[in-house]
Amino acid sequence: MTQHSDAPELVEVPRRPVSAEAFKDAFRRQPGGVAVITADAGEGPAALTVTSVASVSAEPPLVVFSVSELSSAGPTILGAESVVIHLIDVDALGVAKLAATHGVDRFGDPATWVRLPTGEPLYLGVRNWLRCRIVDRVVAGGSTLVVGMVLETGHPDDELTPPVVYHNRTWHALGEHSEIG
């Protein structure tokens, strides 16, 4: 390999194993959009708060998210044929907090959710949601990456409500006050 004269000099970087704590600390500094995944694989509904939802493709419309093997909702989410991804804004922060709380009945209040005609649980008050058919599951370490094809979207009104991000173990709202460019 020929190095060009205007290329930076190659420097040997010391390599060391990355501890789980160092890895978590790195991502604690990276904000993530907040979403709640709901599903029912036949044993009752389950909900999981995640920051791992990402768009993959517009044609076809594909998304991906991860489910930790430590999650109590994991077996239901992974066993379902379809899910609803609730994209959380400030008005729906309570849904994200509920789905992130251990040891509570996340569907105990029947006034807070309904079933779509196709059977998936949908939290009321979340304007922006995606109903997805699971098209692939990939085991990756202690998690499973789930690929979903978007079949239907919620009908958000035209008002843009600030989205919620999770950063350094704290919920934050994005808005004009946080614009930098």
Provide an overview of this structure:
This protein is mostly beta strands. 13% of the residues lie in helices and 39% in strands. It has a single domain (20-173), classed as Electron Transport, Fmn-binding Protein, Chain A (Pnp Oxidase, Chain A), CATH 2.30.110. It contains three helices and twelve strands. A hairpin with a 5-residue loop joins strand 7 (113-115) and strand 8 (121-123).
Beta-strand level of the residues, as a percent range? 35-45%
The CATH homologous superfamily is named: Electron Transport, Fmn-binding Protein, Chain A
Tell me the major beta sheet: 7 strands, antiparallel
The oligomerization state is: single chain
Strand order of the largest sheet: 3-2-6-9-10-5-4
| Strands, total number | 12
